[in-house]
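Renewal narrative, Specific Aim 1. Our central claim is that a sequence can be written position by position from structural information alone. The example that follows is taken directly from our test logs and has not been curated for this report. It begins with the C-alpha cells describing the chain, in the order in which they were read.
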C-alpha cells in the first residue's frame, strides 16, 4: 500500500473517530429533555455508544497501546458525568461512567482482536 493511500485511510478513520467523539460529547452535555432516547436503558446506550467509538478509535490508532486508547475514554466519561451536575435534567451516575468505560474498553479490545487482523489481511 502506498504512503498516499495510508495517509488517506488514516484521514478517513480519524474523521470518523473525531465525529463519534463529538457526538458523544454533545449527547453527554445537552439537557436531558433535548437528548434523543433509544428506548434502551441508559447504561446500554452508554455501553453501545462508547463501544463503537472505542472500536473506531482503536482502528484509527492501530499502533497505540490499548491502555493509552482506553484512558482518554475513562477520563472523558468521568468528566462528562461530573459536568452533568450543572445540566438541567441530567444527573451524574457511577453506573453510566462504568458502562461508558467498559463499552470503550470492549470496543477497543474487540477491534484489536477481531477487526484489525481482518483489515490487515484485506490490505486496508
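The sequence written for that structure reads:
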Amino acid at each position: 500500500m502506498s504512503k498516499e493511500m495510508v495517509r488517506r485511510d488514516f484521514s478517513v478513520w480519524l474523521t470518523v473517530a473525531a465525529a463519534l467523539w463529538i457526538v458523544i460529547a454533545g449527547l453527554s452535555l445537552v439537557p436531558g429533555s433535548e437528548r434523543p432516547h433509544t428506548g434502551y436503558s441508559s447504561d446500554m446506550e452508554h455501553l453501545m455508544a462508547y463501544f463503537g467509538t472505542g472500536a473506531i478509535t482503536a482502528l484509527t490508532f492501530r499502533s497505540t497501546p490499548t491502555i493509552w486508547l482506553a484512558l482518554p475514554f475513562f477520563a472523558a466519561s468521568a468528566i462528562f458525568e461530573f459536568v452533568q451536575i450543572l445540566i438541567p435534567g441530567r444527573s451524574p451516575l457511577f453506573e453510566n461512567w462504568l458502562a461508558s468505560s467498559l463499552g470503550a474498553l470492549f470496543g477497543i479490545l474487540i477491534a484489536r482482536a477481531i477487526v484489525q487482523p481482518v483489515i490487515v489481511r484485506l490490505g486496508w
